[in-house]
Amino acid sequence: MVNNVDGESTKELATKADLLLLETKLDAKIRLYFIILAFLVLLTNPKAIDLLSKLIGIVK
Description:
The protein has 60 residues and is an alpha+beta fold. It is 67% helix and 13% strand. It is built from 2 helices and 2 strands; from the N terminus they run ββαα.
């Protein structure tokens, strides 16, 4: 990131804490996307619904 301070260009480097915070946010976002994707696959696939119901024990 380049900032102009009184006409001077300075560069800021990300600290380890900044990178850790960014990694944590991305990890949570990816986990959410994975859960949504798994739910959509189970919801739209009839064979997956049958398998899930057999595993849970609703249908024998």
